[in-house]
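Do me a favour: review this protein, sequence plus structure tokens, and tell me how the chain folds. Record follows.
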Amino acid sequence: QVHLVESGGGLVQAGASLKLSCAASGDTFSMYAMGWFRQAPGKEREFVATVSSSGGTTQYADSVKGRFTISRDNAKNTMYLQMEDLKPEDTAIYYCVATKMFLVPADFRALRFWGQGTQVTVSS
């Protein structure tokens, strides 16, 4: 099974950029589609973005489309989330996920492999 560790979170002002990383170990990274979910206080965990195992296909939540970019480097066993023009409503704990499906589904209850999360806080 795959082990996931996120990094790169922090406190930024609205309009700033931030890049999250997710390092994978324990299994063949290139066999997994990867994705990001986030959870704000008092809210349900929500899908953010996903990338296929090859990196050739991506999908985004409407709320981040055009501002966030998901990517991966299979040689480095690492996935990234580049976040631009951050808004206070982007404040959440961001979780990295992995699946052997073609893409990470939007239903988080179907997912088995999760990182511990990294906090992103955007001040207005």
